[in-house]
Every structure is written in C-alpha cells, then in structure tokens.
Amino acid sequence: xxxxxxxxxxxxxxxxxxxxxxxxxxxxxxxxxxxxxxxxxxxxxxxxxxxxxxxxxxxxxxxxxxxxxxxxxxxxxxxxxxxxxxxxxxxxxxxxxxxxxxxxxxxxxxxxxxxxxxxxxxxxxxxxxxxxxxxxxxxxxxxxxxxxxxxxxxxxxxxxxxxxxxx
Amino acid sequence: xxxxxxxxxxxxxxxxxxxxxxxxxxxxxxxxxxxxxxxxxxxxxxxxxxxxxxxxxxxxxxxxxxxxxxxxxxxxxxxxxxxxxxxxxxxxxxxxxxxxxxxxxxxxxxxxxxxxxxxxxxxxxxxxxxxxxxxxx
Lengths: 167, 137
Description:
heterodimer
C-alpha cells in the first residue's frame, strides 16, 4: 500500500501526535515517559523526513516509533522485561475453564493497562500496534521488521498471557 | 489433536484467508475447548480496544493543540456519524455474510466498532468485508 507523504513535519505532528502518544502511553504506562517518547519520535521524524523515500509512510512512522521506544527501554533499563516464554499449551496443563467465566471485571482499564505492562516487550508492542493503533498484521510486520507469521504468533501469545492476567 | 490457536486471534482481527477460516470453523465444530478460547480471546481483545483514547497533554505537540477545540466541539457529531455508518455497514455486511461464518451483529460490532471509535478518521472502508466489496464493485 503506497500512501501519500504528509508534506510537513507539522502535519505529521498534528495528524499522528495523539496516536503516537497513546501508543507510547500503553507501552510505558506512564504519562511522563509517553510525553518524552512523543518528543523523541517527532524529532526523529523531523530529521528523517528529508531523506524519506515514498512508500508506506505509516510503516516508516511506526518503525521509527517502536525503535525509539526500544532504545528508551535499553537506555534506561528501569523496567527489565521478561524474556519471551517458550510456547506452552496451557490446555495441556490445566483443565479448560468453564464457559461461564465472569469477564465483566476485565473491562476495568487499570487492570488491562497493568496486564499489558506485564507482557514481554515483543508481545506488548504487537498487541498495542494491533488493538490500540489499529494497524494490520502486514503493517505491523513492516514496522517491527519481522515476518507476518511472527506478528500473528506474538499477538496470539500476548492475548493468551493477557487472559491469564485478567481472569 | 492439534489446536489451531493462532488462527483464532487472526480470525478475530480479520486476518485469515477463506481457506483458513474454513479450517478454523471445521475444527471449532468439534472442539469445545477452542470454542471457549475463541470467546475468551474475544473478550480480551475487546478489553484492550476499550481502553480510552487519551488526549495529548496541552503544549506537548503545539501543532496538534490547534485541533483540540474543533475536535471537542464536533466530537459528538463525528462519533455519532461514524457509529451510524459503522452500524449500517455492519448490518449490511452481516446480511451478505454466508451463514457458515456464524457471526452475530454484536460480535461484528465489538470487533470493528472499537477501532472505528478510536479515530473518526478511521473510515468505514476497513469495515467492509470482502464479500461486501464484491457486491459493491
């Protein structure tokens, strides 16, 4: 999908600033960190627009955004993240939960935000890019630079871990 | 029995091919555990998508602050209009969707409504199902 490039940095800030902030907030769970990340991303966009080659602008933008986030995680390393666990089929370990499990309480946003922060970074960013930003699997694959099959796996495993946290 | 777990999440996101959908529903017809997992992952997905869209802190992106006033003033109209469009598209899509898909309007609404509600600019184009596209072209 080829998209037209916003003409100016100001337009990128105006159109995408709020989305970038929400992406950053859901990944960090912290308004100050999210604000810092937005400023860093827009700085990188401003520098990068001059050499931007027409193509998938959203793929380019979200690649910059997630790279800024990962750089921030590495630099500060104040929230060590869990390694990606080996795939475990929980069905084989425990009996299936009953179908009438009560889900109403997982609508509480604080619980959901907390559960997101407990996810390994790779799963968290995939789920947030899908469910908060609204990118397709192809767009996420371009942003994260992994195959679409990996995106599919990370989103699914991320949601399974969220389910365990929320129920 | 191999459970096609990843197909469930991808199905909820509208990311499966027709053959994969057939494969998934063929399995679901005989596997209660995966049917339950589909319900649970749908609930998880809806919960994440129901997180509120946060406003940018004033002054953080001055270029975006100018948008705040009209955004607030028009939000009710925009959200209402977007919801109405989404509802109509979903209703039509539900009618033209083969019954084997076994999707209720409520499920479609929860699946696509959240994305649309986050951003009025998220047009109804992505809500249109492939089957509906065929009838429109």
